[in-house]
Amino acid sequence: MRLTNPDIPPEWQSAYRDFQRQRERLFTIFGAWLLLATMVAYHFSHELRGVRPPEPWSLEHLLRLPVYLSIGLALLSHWTGVPGWHPKVFLRMMSTSLMLMMLGLFLVYFQDKPGGVPQVSEGLMISFFGVTMMATRGLRDWLVQFLPPLLLFVIAATLLRISPADLVPHLFGPTAMLAVGLITSETLRRLGNHQFVNEQEVKQLATTDQLTGLLNRHAFLPLIHHEMDRARRRSERSFCLIMGDLDNFKRVNDTHGHEVGDLVLRETAVRVSASLRQQDVLCRWGGEELLILLPETGPTGGLEVARKIRAAMADQPMQVNGIRIRQTISLGVACFDGERAPEQLITRADNALYGAKAAGRNRVVMAPGKETGATPGSGHSGLG
Ligand SMILES: Nc1nc2c(ncn2[C@@H]2O[C@H](COP(=O)(O)OP(=O)(O)OP(=O)(O)O)[C@@H](O)[C@H]2O)c(=O)[nH]1
Fold first, then answer.
1. What is the ipTM of this complex?
2. Residue 286 alpha carbon to ligand 1 centre in Å
3. Where are the domain boundaries for CATH 3.30.70.270 in the chain?
4. Which residue's alpha carbon is nearest to atom 23 within ligand 1?
5. Burial class (CB in 10 A: 0-12, 13-18, 19+), 151
6. Can you say whether residue 254 is alpha, beta or left, with left for phi > 0 and alpha for psi between -120 and 50 degrees?
7. Residue whose CA lies nearest to ligand 1 atom number 26
8. CB 90 within 8 A of CB 83
9. Digits of tens for pLDDT over the chain (384 positions)?
10. 339 in contact with ligand 1, CB cutoff 6 A
11. Judging by DSSP bridges, how do beta strands 215-216 and 281-284 pair with one another?
């Protein structure tokens, strides 16, 4: 089942899953070391307190075994990547086995060694708190970790005919600690989520154009880099860039005001987005300039998309603040031709756009290149 957190906007859910995984990995590794240290200290505390350690293969040893096993698996996975389970699995294994051990020991001591009960209930207090802290996903996680061992505890206590009234005085401290743990863990979880949301907002501000909601230049360049690397590795996976520029946009601002100009830019972003596939990336390159990345697209596909965008703008006038505006766009298409840097390809798209403007605007021009078979100056031009 996929984790979705209602406090996190849907577009950040995927990043949130990564964040959660990272958090759980940290908790797993710290938890494993802490638990190991506690187990070793617990082992030697028998001698320090003058209590004879239990016989090998006693019930006490059997109860400890799953804890050591889950610690071992968590550390092994951290060092070697095997087993490659999700960190939450290790957290649940460690906390459930620890709970089983502590509750089991409590019953053993309650039955056979009543003198040791206060020490076990101390241990129960600490582990209730520790296990609650491992419930990194809130109440649901907490229930998964606590309910099965608690249920087994109640069944075992009933079978051993231990009266609940006798148990309650010893369980008061641990229960109080459980409440403290729950509050602490929920506070930490919410603080972590706040931090995640803040970071996402800062990231979004840094990569998104505030007017149109499109990617900005800063966020777009790495994507071209990435696509170039891919195209170089696999020659059949070429790609194209389309540079678009609104025609006579200054006139819109001058005639109707900047506010209307802004709304035209927004409507342009909507129309162009609607003309693209999901894997295409649209960016606001400058004032009224757009740059579009079309992955896995050759010259024919590139031209086709550019023509579609041109038609989406020109065929239907915009209604902005009750004003009817016919806003056209000129477009230059350049497909990857072995360029070494994104700037070289962008310049080719820009030159093609310049050609479209020079040819009268509201048209598409293909940059000359090996793939198109055209020679410099003879780029494909047309109203699409
Ligand atoms: N409203 C608004 N206008 C902008 C924004 N960014 C740039 N502009 C305007 O876009 C206009 C661009 O004008 P020009 O570069 O002369 O180009 P043009 O009028 O579109 O003419 P051609 O490109 O030659 O067809 C300028 O008036 C800028 O002020 C913006 O965010 N909002």
1. 0.97
2. 9
3. 215-382
4. 247
5. exposed
6. alpha
7. 250
8. no
9. 444 565 788 888 999 999 999 999 999 999 999 999 988 888 777 666 666 656 656 888 899 999 999 999 999 999 999 999 999 999 999 999 999 999 998 998 888 877 778 888 888 888 998 889 888 888 888 898 899 999 999 999 999 998 888 888 888 999 999 999 999 999 998 999 999 999 999 998 999 999 999 999 999 999 999 999 999 888 777 999 999 999 999 999 999 999 999 999 999 999 999 999 999 999 999 999 999 999 999 999 999 999 999 999 999 999 999 999 999 999 999 999 999 999 999 999 999 999 999 999 999 999 997 655 444 444 445 554
10. no
11. parallel
Please tell me the distance between residue 257's alpha carbon and the centre of ligand 1 in angstroms: 12
Query: Is 247's C-beta closer than 6 angstroms to any atom of ligand 1?
Result: yes
Angle at 183 between CA 180 and CA 189, to 5 degrees: 135
Comparing CA positions, the residue from 147, 189, 185, 170 lying closest to residue 23 is 189
Structure tokens, 118: 């206060």
Kindly report the protein residue whose alpha carbon is nearest to atom 12 of ligand 1: 250
Please report the atom of ligand 1 found closest to the CA of residue 260: 1
The second-level CATH assignment, the architecture, of 215-382 is 2-Layer Sandwich (3.30)
Residue identifier of the C-alpha nearest atom 8 of ligand 1: 287
Going from the Cα of 268 to the center of ligand 1, the distance in angstroms, rounded, reads 13
Q: Please give the structure tokens belonging to residue 68.
A: 């050591």
Shortest-distance Cα residue to atom 14 of ligand 1: 250
Distance 367 CA to ligand 1 centre (A): 24
The CA 242 to ligand 1 mean position distance, Å, reads 19
Atom of ligand 1 nearest to the CA of 247: 25
Closest residue by Cα to atom 27, ligand 1, is 250
Structure token digits, residue 62:
């059997």
